[in-house]
Design goal:
Number of helices: 5
Helix content: 10-25%
Number of domains: 2
Distance between the termini: 55 Å
Structural class: alpha+beta
Bound molecules: zinc ion
Strand content: 25-35%
């Protein structure tokens, strides 16, 4: 007789309102739009996850993991936004005040059609180093969250490297010494306007 395989089925119900949570095939974090609450299955139980919504205009809310980071390379270490801008070879744009504290790495928690698009979205947001303002109102809905924090950490390394100037990436010594250390990730949604299939963020003048 075959051994019994224990399969535990966890009811996907919102811990707040008790309604069943919408769950797509690849979703890993579930969102109750009524309660604006996110949960993840952890050790066979539903655990709440902090989810913030960043301010901005647009009806499509894309979830991102946001990690504070530092970079160590043959050129020294990078711990601030101005230092990171030098490393990435970008100048600050817009009239926004520079964010203080460590630079932030943006890794999409939703899926894009292809890996290059996924990296591109993370790369563009990371290069922007936007000042983050939280929107307290409840969003209508958010795009499915299909990557957990550990997955996002791994993808984050490629995204971080993708933001570094091509000249530096041609330097073998630089690449060999390159390492990014990520702090604790936070999950946040960022609004984009749907412009006939392209997603646009007005504040950052960014098209995905
Ligand atoms: Zn609920």
């Amino acid at each position: 007789m075959a051994e019994d395989v224990k399969v535990r089925v966890i009811p996907l119900l919102c811990p707040e309102c008790g309604r069943s949570l919408p769950a797509g095939e690849h979703d890993v974090i579930f969102h109750c739009a009524d309660c604006d609450l996110a949960v993840e299955i952890e050790d066979g139980k539903l655990a709440r996850r902090e989810l913030r919504h960043l301010a901005g205009q647009g009806e499509v809310r894309l979830p991102f993991w946001i990690f504070p980071f530092r970079v160590d390379s043959s050129e020294g270490s990078v711990r601030t936004v101005p230092e990171y801008r030098l490393l990435a070879g970008v100048v600050a744009t817009g009239s926004d005040a520079e964010r203080s504290g460590p630079p932030l790495l943006f890794v999409p928690a939703c899926s894009f059609a292809t890996t290059p698009l996924h990296v591109r979205a993370g790369r563009l947001l990371t290069l922007q180093q936007p000042v983050l303002a939280v929107d307290r109102s409840k969003p209508v809905g958010i795009e499915p969250i299909v990557f957990r924090e550990p997955d996002a950490r791994i993808m984050g390394q490629s995204i971080l490297l993708a933001t570094v100037t091509v000249e530096r990436k041609r330097n073998r010594l630089f690449l060999e010494g390159f390492s990014g250390s990520l702090g604790k990730g936070r999950l946040a949604t960022i609004p984009f306007a749907d412009r006939g299939g392209k997603l646009y963020h007005a504040g950052m003048n960014l098209e995905l």
